[in-house]
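Ticket opened by: R.M.
Priority: normal
Category: complex prediction / small molecule

The reporter submitted a protein together with glutamic acid and asked that the result be attached to this ticket for the collaborator who will pick it up next week. Submitted input follows.
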Amino acid sequence: MVGMEEISLWQQVCRQFDRAAAHTKHAPGILAQIRACNHVYRIAFPLRRDDGSVQVIHGWRAEHSHHKLPTKGGIRYSMVVSEDEVMGLAALMTYKCAIVDVPFGGAKGGIKISVKDYSTGELERITRRYTTELMHKQFIGPGIDVPAPDYGTGAREMAWIADTYQAISTDKLEALACVTGKPVGQGGIRGRKEATGRGVYLGIREAVNVVEDMTPLGLSAGLGGKRVVVQGLGNVGYHAAKFLQEGGAVIVGLAEYEGAIASDAGLDLEAVMAHRAATGSLLGFPGARDLPDRRAALELDCDVLVPAALENVITAENAPRIRAKIIAEAANGPVTSDADNMLLDRGVLVLPDIYLNAGGVTVSYFEWLKNLSHVRFGRMDKRRDQHIFGELVGALQRLTGMRLRHDEVVDITRGPDEEDLVNSGLEDTMVMAYQEIRTIAKRDKVDLRTASLISAIDKIARTYSELGIFP
Ligand code: GLU
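Result attached by the on-call engineer:
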């Protein structure tokens, strides 16, 4: 069984694709084109280290599908980056974008480094050089391929990418749209940082609100009181945990590199973060149990397990010991395909990555639109909405004779700002997509991952046929 597990992420994604493709009626040639990874660029370049020595840095950018342009996907810095991993992650981006109707093809980049081994200056030199390499081969541009943050990267790296691109590109007008996830002052958008975690929360909320789906799991509907374990407290894991806790869930376990902690009574996320910042570790948090093996957190008794770090953490080896009733894939590819089959056989509800973590790319799409339109969402209509709401409240008060307090009037009549609009667009996207994949899952009697892929394959095939590329 363990031997079966030793397949790459790319092969795993292909397996998932084939399982879903069998439920569609598209011609084999169309399916083969949708599955293929179109472009892979492998890069090696020298880095002058701070101590004067020279080191070769290895990186990749894979563009999986060009059925829509630009292609889109993050850049990760990690020691497990490989060509096959980047290809698999690029494919997941293609399907993810299609599922949430974001009009992009999928891409992914990676540099094989461990961030903690490099100074800020070295990371800046690596990021800027990687960007120029992408530019030379036309692997970046507002209408070509638009990177974003991923594991090990964030707004700072995106600012370096945008600055390098802007400095070199002759296209000054649209240059900022060459990358998303930038700091707000550098053309970023409010709400992007939280977007993936917020999307994870919204997806879980939608799933647990369906009584019919919760009953077979022995769970009541609603997020309130659901016992949640989150593995990985990076940007995605932290924000998912934060929104889940605010939504009424109880965090009963948290895991990071150094180990994990658990408490049946619930962990206060902000207090845990403060403890970790002060001591350098989750372990030793007052009132919690220490689990020195971080992987033990995955096996805690809970309702919802949220793997939010890297791929392949739930395998055929540990799947039989997983006690969660719902697995919410905040990371990309955290469950291997063998483990996935075992969990499905046991009736575990798996919310697949290609749906659940699509909130990041959804808000990246909003950022790209903002950059191209050169105007902040809400700038034109916020005041107007405020006036209209004010008139309505005034008219209602006159008609009914009721008087609202001043603070209530201010609250009701406030016109939406950029963050309100971003969050509203994100919520609508996650809610609509969940309804869509759930409907397909019921119709075809398949799991949610297969249903999500059927939805993606159908949409991409439609694009090709509308282009007249395939009959
Ligand atoms: N890296 C994120 C993902 O895996 C976001 C990609 C993007 O915003 O383009 O979905």
